[in-house]
Amino acid sequence: MPTKQAVSFVVIFGVSFGLSFILTPVAQRLGMRWQIVDRPRDRHQHPELTSKFGGMAMVMSFVVAVILAQFMPVVRTDDKEIIRLVGLLLGGLFLFFFGILDDKFEFSALPQYVAQLIAASIAILFLIIIEGFNNPLSGSRTPDWPYMVTVTLTLFWLGLMMNTVNWLDGLDGLATGVCAVTALMIFIHAAFNLDQVSVSLLPLALLGVTLGFLPYNFPPARIFMGSNGALFLGFSTGALSIIGGAKMATVLLVMGLPLLDVAWQIVRRASSGGNPVKGDRGHIHYRLLDLGLSPRQIVLVYYVFCAVFGAVALVTSSRLFKLIALLVMVAVVALGFAVLSWRTDPDSSDPTDAGESPPVS
User: Fold this and answer.
1) pTM for this prediction
2) Residue 220, preceding bond cis, omega within 30 degrees?
3) Predicted confidence (pLDDT) per residue in 327-361, tens digit
4) Tally of domains within the chain
5) Is residue 317 part of a domain?
6) pLDDT in tens, 267-286
7) CA distance readout (Å), 305 to 33, 177, 181
8) CA distance 244 to 186
């Protein structure tokens, strides 16, 4: 590895991690002062008022790190990199400020849906868009799709990622750690498999901010990320899987378990006559709690599961092998769903919960 490249990696990770680690206690105090807090109730089982302003530390640290990354002496292969970076930052900052309001006033699903649509539209306007896929059977790239098809797919993908992280944020350290694993896999894939060094600095910055926040968020958490952090992380993860291309398969394998959990909850709630976006204890992490596992055990299981399937995407360049791994993961998770459905029964919906926003489509 060239020295300048190694130094750039160390600087960006060090700055993002260090700032996040330092700013998180500040965010904790500000959240308590401004009453951006989570109160114990129903599914929210922590023992006391807890700040949910953690997104502030991650967002500020990420913005500083990715701007600094533009001055690093690395090879740049994307002539639209600055344009896409602006879209990434504008969309993420919009969601951060909306998330603060959501954490303060607990909006219903509709305003969340509209905010996600706006953020995804910002990404598209700044050229963060899915242009096609590689056929896993033939290895060839799909023909160029009509613009409306690519726009629709991008809106759906970004909305899905935002909601997956938002719904995953139900247990201390769970969403933060899974996003850290995802950012790590995107970084490795971009830097070493695709040789997109400058682009790889963006997920590296996201890795740093999540790891800097995690010591305060790991169970028992002293601070939550809130909607201001969850929506930002979901949007950033989804956008980074598009920027530079050829990373969505990696993210699908890393995030497969929480993505399938989202699909399961929507189908389960709708089939039972309930509101598919109304929160309850049907999520996998809640069911595992009901089985007697500790929060730490559950988050570690998630980390390992996501890391193992993410590593599969890194060690092989065969798209067919990645497809097989994805199908195996779906089968394993489906079997786990069946066992959990038999062993547990989710509580009724939380009447005080503002609901979980649906994926943008």
Assistant:
1) 0.91
2) yes
3) 999 999 889 888 888 877 665 444 333 344 444 43
4) 1
5) yes
6) 888 888 877 877 777 889 98
7) 38, 12, 10
8) 11
